[in-house]
Amino acid sequence: MYFILSNHLVRFLFKFNSSLKYLWVLFLLCSSSCDSIKEQSITVKNGFLDLSDYHFEKEGTIRLNGTWAFYWKQYLHSADFEHTSPSSFIAVPNSWANEEIEKGVKLGSKGHATYRLLVKLPISRNPKQLLGLRTQFIGTNHVLFIDNELVSRTKDLGANSTDTDGYVNPEVYFFQINRDTVEIVLHVANYAGRVGGITQPIFLGNDTQIRQNYERNMMVSFLLFGVLMIMSGYHFSLYAFRPKELPTLWFALFCFVIGLRILVTDDYYFSDIFPHAPYELGNKISYLTFYLGVPLFAIFIRSLFPKDFSKIVVNLSITIGSIYSTVVLFSTTIFYSQFLQYFQIATLLIILYAIYFVILILYRRRAGSAIFASGIFVIFI
Fold first, then answer.
1. Are 201 and 63 in contact (CB under 8 A)?
2. Is 68 in contact with 188 (CB distance < 8 Å)?
């Protein structure tokens, strides 16, 4: 469905004038990146999840959200849990930074820990049916065990920044369990980034469901990546023949930056394409595409509506984006990631101004303002 829709949209883009072409690509950006999230009432409690009455076939995959058993600054295995009490029961997904094992003392972002979850599997399950587990971002490195079997090890985990490598690689895993309960253990270490711990949901389901979900997301992501890169190249070529058409240049750059960003967010395909690339490189690309994308978008809008979009706002976004980008280029993740929230605040202020700007062009009845406004509205949502 996404492929057919995108095909029609791409053909449609080239028939419209430049302003509407830009708008429809932004619609594509928004619609393809929005996933529906099904609410679930079953949650993990104190490291245990009871799925005995659950039906994967009827109800789909389940997010392993809730409170997992948490063992701070320990790498433990199945045999260790009999005589080791949890340091705490910590919410997943969430960073461990604000967790307090000792009253009044927060853990902070750096450290390592073991997460443990016991899942009672559905009674209706076919024991021969493979199960699937899908992980997303785990900051910033992890090792996965299922029933004490090593399932995934990427880069080394240690007890400090010297012997722990950062590595992000969301993945899917398939396994078969003949018992009615499965143990999931994650060793997580963070000595490289701003966020430590399991900060995005982990999904459990039948192997078919997990595989289809992963493949669908991958298809949409790479389709969107391809569309953006084609649009970027097309508008670069337009600019080469018509250098006075500045909107085509800014739009080409914006498409390129956002397309690149697809590879370093969500399922983080960058680590699949470049498995030996250093963690720092992928992270720099992730931050730079954000810090460059915001000013490029502001410049692009002003190039379409030069009389209405404030030059001061554009200059501020360029200045802030340039400063942040320079810091990213010449420092490490553990340093520059601390300032992300301030850029997010600045981005929010730019968005608030953009809302005012949209109301302004509607009031002044600028050409194409109604369609442009509806596109911006969808993107904001």
1. yes
2. no
Over residues 282-307, the pLDDT tens digits come to 999 999 999 999 999 999 999 989 99
pLDDT, tens digit, for every residue of 80-103? 999 999 999 999 999 999 898 888
- The DSSP call for residue 113 is E
How far apart, in whole angstroms, are the C-alpha atoms of residue 359 and residue 348?
A: 17
3-state secondary structure of 15: coil
Q: Are 184 and 193 in contact (CB under 8 A)?
A: no
Report the distance separating Cα 279 and Cα 297, nearest Å: 27
Our measurement of the distance from residue 247's CA atom to the centroid of its chain's CA atoms, rounded to an integer in Å, reads: 29
For residue 86 the two structure tokens come to: 């949890």
185 or 156, higher pLDDT = 185
Cβ–Cβ under 8 Å, residues 72 and 111: yes
Those residues whose C-beta lies under 8 Å from the C-beta of residue 326, and which sit 6 or more positions away, are none
Please report where in the chains the tokens 């433990």 appear, as a residue.
76
Please tell me the total number of residues recorded for the chain in this structure: 381
pLDDT at 24 exceeding the cut of 90 = no
Q: Is the pLDDT of residue 73 over 80?
A: yes
Torsion of CA 355, 358, 363, 364, to 10 degrees: 140
Neighbours of 95 (CB within 10 A): 19
Task: Report which of 123, 134, 177, 103 is spatially closest to residue 267, judged by C-alpha positions.
Answer: 134
Task: State the Cα–Cα distance between residues 153 and 157, nearest whole angstrom.
Answer: 9
Query: What would the 3-class secondary structure string for 307-370 be?
Result: CCCCHHHHHHHHHHHHHHHHHHHCCCHHHHHHHHHHHHHHHHHHHHHHHHHHHHHHHCCCCCHH
Taking residues 113-132, report their average pLDDT: 93
